[in-house]
Amino acid sequence: MDIKELAEKIQQGDEEAFKQLFDAYFGKIYGFLLTILGNSAEAEDVTSITFIYVWDNRGKLRKPELLVSWLYQIAKHRAFDRRRKIIREAAMALDGLEETVSDGAEALEVNVDRYYSSRFTSSLLSGLTDDERAILHLRYSEDLSFEEIAARVDASSVAVRVRVHRIIKKLQKEMANDMESEDKTFLSQTIL
After folding, report:
1. Which of 33, 71, 83, 111 is deepest in the core (most CB within 10 A)?
2. How far is CA 140 from the centre of its chain?
């Protein structure tokens, strides 16, 4: 069954067709949201909310052939809503280093390295907008073509290709700045 036919059945209230959509896209939407939200529990909650919204608002889908794009747009908007709510309620607390450290010198070294690698990656990605992280997720985690990403984010494939290139350049520049900053810090500490 093609996506347009599936969408039309969902619009008519066919629960089996909706189950097919859910089974086919739950993991993809979850991964997409995990990239935006950075928290598996939040991503799972928002994934569920997304599918509930799709079912409850199935009559609002104007172009059945765009069901997947609609699904991703809803997921993205629900994720942004959740992030705004989290920010309003409280500042996110960083997990302390002590939680990652276990007994033993070797384990300590491995855990410290893992902790700082994870913080570095998180720090780099935090410098990106939600849309930029979402596009990187679609390109590199879901391995979608520029055309497929374009369909999901409602842009031309050329625009998506340019955005991916700019995002990568932005990350490279940020990495170079971080490395330069670390070198200057090391040198100033060595000289003193």
Report:
1. 33
2. 11
Neighbour tally for 20: CB within 10 Å: 15
Element (H, E) at 70: helix 67-89
Distant-in-sequence, close-in-space partners of 178: CB < 8 Å, separation ≥ 6: 120, 124
Q: How many C-beta atoms lie closer than 10 Å to residue 33's C-beta?
A: 28
Mean pLDDT, each 10-residue run in order, the chain (192 residues): 89 94 94 88 93 92 90 92 70 41 51 55 75 83 86 86 86 72 52 52
Containing domain of residue 33, as a range? 1-93
What is the token pair recorded at 136? 């990187």
We report the CATH number of the domain holding residue 12 as 1.10.1740.10
**Under 8 Å between Cβ of 154 and 71:** no
Q: Count CB-CB contacts under 10 A for residue 39.
A: 15
Residue 186, token pair as written in the block: 């090391």
* pTM score: 0.56
